[in-house]
Amino acid sequence: MLKGRAFKFGDNISTDHIVPGRLAHLRSNLPELAKHVLEDADPDFASKVQPGDFVVGGSNFGLGSSREHAPLVIKMAGVSAVLAKSVARIFFRNAINRGLPVLICDTDKIKDGDELEVDMASGNVKNLTTGKDISFKPIPDFMLNILNEGGLVPYITKHGDFKA
Amino acid sequence: MGKTLAEKILSDKSGGLRKAGDIAISSVDLAFVQDTTGPLTIRAFKEAGFCELANHEKTVLFLDHAAPSPNWQLSNDHVFMRSFARETGCILSDVGEGVCHQVVAEKLAKPGDVIVGADSHTVTAGGIGAFATGMGSSDVAVAFALGKTWFRVPDTLLIELAGKFSRGVYAKDLILHLIGRIGADGATYKALEFGGSGVTKMAVTDRLTIANMAVEAGAKVGLFPSDEMTYEYLKSVGREKDYKPLYPDPDAQYSEKISIDLAALEPTVSKPHTVDNTALARDLKDINVDQVVIGTCTNGRLEDLEIAASILKGRRRHSRTRLIIGPASPKVLRDGVKKGYIDILLAAGGIILPPGCGPCLGLHQGALGDDEVCLSTANRNFKGRMGNPKGNIYLASTATAAASAITGKITDPREVLNA
């Protein structure tokens, strides 16, 4: 069970909002890069977020670049999952590859600061602030197998290949 | 039942019949990274315990995003990548040797290939009929080592094109129009496939511009058939031996079809801060422009230099407007010099950048000041994209960019073409 506060963002949060290109020189210094996570969407996010908290987006979260640093620094900030109405393809795959769950659900039912509890097994998000339950779309099996190993590198290290 | 282009290529590369929705473990014909994603890829490769590449001749490291490097940190990333290239024997495309997607188109991509790159605009090679898509560093690290990757075979959205562009309207206007119409997530997880009579005579350079921006509608790939025009393009870059015809089956199943009459399109612009926020250039003529950028993997080809030179010949940039031109490859630059385009652009007050990504992603060579407006031929106008979240980026065709450089305001190129 994952538990934490919601940090609510709008639609179309791009990888440039999460880790802008102007900070490309920090990409080989991930702890330093992580201090700027989501800076262009909320300059104070990195100082406010606590381990276990959730990033909650609207539609098309993570659009743009293939930079895997985007989900990586969100995870490094202690975020336990990203929730969004929809998510861009490459970000989705990158997040799973780094062991960061991405849950597709109706995030209109979540406000900034709400306390959430996520049950990965049952596919449910409980909004503890409003008392409402929100179900999320199951993560496709192939990706769930990668997520359950903690990401693609641990998955491949263990299996040596893709398991069809 | 017939196959779409995506189903055809993924069936071929995964050794079995694959339909939309299936998982395909596909062989990879080319895997590459660039300098902002390469170091993380190399670290993932080593972390997974890999030492050897599946095929060093099909693995490429491009140093193009920070080229030449503006600071010591990125220089050290370059050192790290060059060292990996020496260790493994893979291909290194060093600083000044061009934007990855342009070099892939000129030298490497073949119709029917599966190509993965740690750069979202890897989709560009769909213009040559390759199933080419952007992935993150972990995925590409695994492709480096195993020579394969996995895909969910995408549903396909068919874009049926008819007619011809009218004067002053280009491939860029089409793709901006399409993204404005279906939205920045209008093709998420899907393949975009372009077909119809409007494709038959469309040059591959135009197809590359369109395929390049498929990802801006969320698509996994933007695919064109491989036909006579593909043959002509491959021949023009000395690779006619790489040609093979590739078409979708006549009875292929599409999840949706959209028809567009090319003749009905007008010069189109994406306004800040999303690509689908489109308008017609003629409706934006009060907007002053501080910087014009012509180049990038979207519009940095010889044809773009030709269009810009034809509009700027004997004219000069407006005094308030910087004019930055970035040829996408050394071949483009050298051909542009030989044809006299570069001289015209310099005489018009243009700044010629070394072949590379230039100011597109905010690393160097033209970061915006607060509240400045840039009109760019690139593919992205996200907040903060060009080095400053207080900058404003508009996207347009090369002709619209060149016309706007002259007037200092966003300008429908038909106004200067008619002048």
Structure description:
The complex is a heterodimer of chains A (164) and B (419). With 164 residues, chain A is of the alpha/beta class. Chain A has one domain: Aconitase, domain 4 (Alpha-Beta Barrel), CATH 3.20.19. Chain A contains seven helices and seven strands. In chain A, strands 4-3-2-1-5-6-7 form a seven-stranded mixed β-sheet. With 419 residues, chain B is of the alpha/beta class. Chain B folds into two domains: 258 residues, 2-Layer Sandwich (Aconitase, domain 3), CATH 3.30.499.10; 145 residues, Aconitase, domain 3 (2-Layer Sandwich). In chain B, the strands form five sheets. Chain B has a five-stranded parallel β-sheet with strand order 4-3-2-5-6. In chain B, strands 16-15-14-17-18 form a five-stranded parallel β-sheet. In chain B, strand 12 and strand 13 form a beta hairpin. In chain B, helix 2 crosses helix 5, helix 11 crosses helix 13 and helix 11 packs parallel to helix 14. The longest helix of chain B has 17 residues. Chain B starts with a helix and ends with a helix. The interface between A and B is large, with 42 and 58 residues.
Topology summary:
The complex is a heterodimer of chains A (164) and B (419).
Chain A: E1 2-8, H1 15-18, H2 30-34, H3 45-48, E2 54-56, H4 69-76, E3 81-84, H5 89-97, E4 102-104, E5 115-119, E6 124-127, E7 133-135, H6 141-148, H7 152-159
Parallel strand pairs in A: 1-2, 2-3, 3-4
Antiparallel strand pairs in A: 1-5, 5-6, 6-7
Chain B: H1 5-14, E1 23-27, E2 30-34, H2 38-47, E3 59-62, H3 72-88, E4 91-93, H4 100-108, E5 114-118, E6 131-134, H5 137-146, E7 148-152, E8 156-162, H6 171-182, E9 191-195, H7 197-200, H8 204-212, E10 221-223, H9 228-236, E11 256-261, E12 268-270, E13 278-280, E14 291-295, H10 296-299, H11 302-312, E15 322-326, H12 330-338, H13 341-347, E16 350-352, E17 373-376, E18 392-395, H14 398-407, H15 413-417
Parallel strand pairs in B: 2-3, 2-5, 3-4, 5-6, 8-9, 8-11, 9-10, 14-15, 14-17, 15-16, 17-18
Antiparallel strand pairs in B: 1-7, 12-13
